[in-house]
Amino acid sequence: MLVGYSSSSSEEDGEAGGEAEGAKNQSETTCRKCQEEDDGLPTRKKPKTEEESPKSRLPLPGCVLAMFPDEVDSQTEDSSLHGGRIRSFKHERGNWASYVYFPYHPEEEFGELLDGILSAACARGVVLTVQDEFHLSLSQTVVLRHHWIQPFTQSLKSSLTGCKRFVCSAGRLRMYSNAEKTRTFLGMEVSTGHAQMLDLIRAVDRTMTEFRLETFYKDPSFHVSLAWCVGDQTVQMEECMQELQSLVDDHEDGPFVLRLDCSELRCRTGNKTFRFPLES
């Protein structure tokens, strides 16, 4: 970046007045140098002054570095640091992975059932990892630039105006996989509340379209993901799905039903979470 520089009159005067004096000094220096060489003495080096010594560079502020997001943190791309998971898109500074969802807060009964499901799958050779958190997605994972976050969430809030809260339930296990076939999921599919979910999808998709982002799937299967494994293991999981479903259907007090209170929609973007309470 070019910076405009205006020299002062004293500097200009100093430069002009120094030309004659500089010529005189140069002549005297030449004579001294010749005299030293004639005497057989080595030429003395001029010691460095503080002004000539290299100056250390100050680190750039983070806000400036964020303006140039081409550099990728190698650790974020190392799948071994994420349980073998592979990113669906390249991580770059200033890009925020974002999605819209309903959180699910499990009860103790759910945890006991999930432990039994994972043990039965493991006995069949399918090793599943429990989700870090349970939720029901209402958008695909998209990438937001940092300066989009505020207008995006404002648009989402406006789109959700008039949407009512409700309760949905799920009880049927189903397999899912991501588009790249790098992970396989075990989820519990929603059986009631499907119509209300579709209304919310239309509202969320309006904001996605406004920002030219991917909208949700055309024929969605709303579900809460329970666990996952690396790679495409749909064939192995298919072989034990009936046994896993029987654990849900033959639960202690009858078939287990997952009930999800859909009263507050959330948007996760990077490490920030935005909440959107629905109307009563």
UniProtKB/TrEMBL annotation:
Keyword field: Hydrolase, Lyase, Nuclease, Nucleus
EC primary class: hydrolase
GO molecular function: lyase activity; poly(U)-specific exoribonuclease activity, producing 3' uridine cyclic phosphate ends
Region (Disordered): 1-60
Compartments it resides in: Nucleus
Main location: nucleus
Keyword hit for NAD: no
GO biological process: neutrophil differentiation; regulation of RNA splicing; U6 snRNA 3'-end processing
Catalysed conversion reaction: a 3'-end uridylyl-adenosine-RNA = a 3'-end 2',3'-cyclophospho-uridine-RNA + adenosine; a 3'-end uridylyl-uridine-RNA = a 3'-end 2',3'-cyclophospho-uridine-RNA + uridine
Domain of life: Eukaryota
EC number: 3.1.4.-
KW Nucleus (keyword) present: yes
GO CC terms, sorted: nucleus
InterPro entries (UniProt xref): Usb1 (IPR027521)
Active-site residues annotated for this sequence: H135, H223
HAMAP family on file: USB1
Function summary: Phosphodiesterase responsible for the U6 snRNA 3' end processing. Acts as an exoribonuclease (RNase) responsible for trimming the poly(U) tract of the last nucleotides in the pre-U6 snRNA molecule, leading to the formation of mature U6 snRNA. 3'-5' RNA exonuclease that trims the 3' end of oligo(U) and oligo(A) tracts of the pre-U6 small nuclear RNA (snRNA) molecule, leading to the formation of a mature U6 snRNA 3' end-terminated with a 2',3'-cyclic phosphate. Participates in the U6 snRNA 3' end processing that prevents U6 snRNA degradation. In addition also removes uridines from the 3' end of U6atac snRNA and possibly the vault RNA VTRNA1-1.
Family: Belongs to the 2H phosphoesterase superfamily. USB1 family.
Protein name: U6 snRNA phosphodiesterase
Origin organism lineage: Eukaryota, Metazoa, Chordata, Craniata, Vertebrata
Gene that produces this protein: USB1
